[in-house]
Amino acid sequence: MLATVSLQIVSGLTCYSCTSPSSCVNPSTQVCSDRTADETTAWLNTIHKFVPVVESSGSFLCMNLTYYFESNNSKIHEYLGCYHPDIPVCILPLNASISDTWKKGCQSCNKDKCNRNPAGTFSKSFYTITVALIIAKLAF
Question: Which of 2, 16, 75, 118 is most buried (most C-beta within 10 Å)?
Answer without folding.
Answer: 16
